[in-house]
Specification:
The complex is a heterodimer. By secondary structure, chain A is mostly beta strands. Chain A is 0% helix and 49% strand. In chain A, strands 2, 4, 5, 6, 9, 10 and 11 form a 7-stranded mixed β-sheet that branches. Chain A has a 4-stranded antiparallel β-sheet with strand order 1-3-8-7, with no helix packed on it. In chain A, strand 4 and strand 5 form a beta hairpin. The termini of chain A are far apart. By secondary structure, chain B is an all-beta fold. In chain B, 0% of the residues lie in helices and 52% in strands. Chain B contains no helices and 11 strands. In chain B, a hairpin with a 4-residue loop joins strand 7 and strand 8. The chains are: A mainly beta, B mainly beta. At the A-B interface, strand 5, strand 9 and strand 10 of A face strand 5, strand 9 and strand 10 of B.
């Protein structure tokens, strides 16, 4: 099983700052099949990035994904008030597909 | 537009059974590989399992916690995905989502259906 580790667990930042979230896999992720989701309380996860770097439909360009192999990054260039949430990565290159434990981005 | 609509959730006793359905539209269902994902209260998402298209063998894979208790199946004539859950445990309490991956646009999720396992 490809285990995903996310860091940091919590990121405390102010609106307008840059957020850098890390997702590390225990094995190489095949074909960069790595997705990022945002989740707010009471809502379903919202797809932000798929294929490691492709933005999903309707996602603002302040969100960007990068990386390959075992190391991936989600960057939010300038935090807006609505960006404070929990972020999960997911690999779907090999079964079982796995999710990371999440990074909470909260207001400093 | 891709739509995935889950149904069948509810309250069930430990040891009981429940079958979830996912009605799909907006894509060629028979060609699709489909997955179930769940999220327990206060926890992150957890992949449950997937089923391949019949052209790719129609076989299934499961996560370790549900293997041997859950069965994924499909009815291509009805564009419907199923999740049969047996020997339910309290730790199976979660919102269950039907998901589908499209290479050009990523993962699509349904709205989810809540399963509560409690006496």
């Amino acid at each position: 099983e490809n285990v995903l580790t996310q860091s940091p667990g919590t990121l405390s930042l102010s609106p307008g700052e840059r957020a850098t979230l890390s997702c590390r896999a225990s094995q190489s992720v095949s074909s960069s099949f790595l997705a990022w989701y945002q989740q707010k309380p009471g809502q379903a996860p919202r797809l932000l990035i798929y294929g490691a770097s492709s933005r999903a439909t309707g996602i603002p360009d302040r969100f960007s994904g990068s990386g390959s192999g075992t190391d991936f990054t989600l960057t939010i260039s300038r935090l807006e008030p609505e960006d404070f949430a929990v972020y999960y990565c997911q690999q779907y290159g090999s079964s079982p597909y796995t999710f990371g434990p999440g990074t909470k981005v909260d207001i400093k | 537009e891709v739509q995935l609509v889950e149904s069948g959730g509810g309250l069930v006793n430990p040891g009981g059974s429940l079958r979830l359905s996912c009605a799909a539209s907006g894509f060629t269902f028979s060609n699709a590989w489909l997955s179930w994902v769940r999220q327990a209260p206060g926890k992150g998402p957890e992949w449950v399992g997937r089923i391949r298209s019949k052209a790719d063998g129609g076989t299934t894979d499961y996560a370790a916690p549900v293997k041997g208790r859950f069965t994924i199946s499909r009815d291509d004539s009805k564009n419907t995905l199923y999740l049969q859950m047996n020997s339910l445990k309290t730790e199976d309490t979660a919102v269950y989502y039907c998901t589908h991956y499209i290479y050009s646009s990523g993962w699509k999720w349904g709205q989810g259906t809540l399963v509560t396992v409690s006496s």
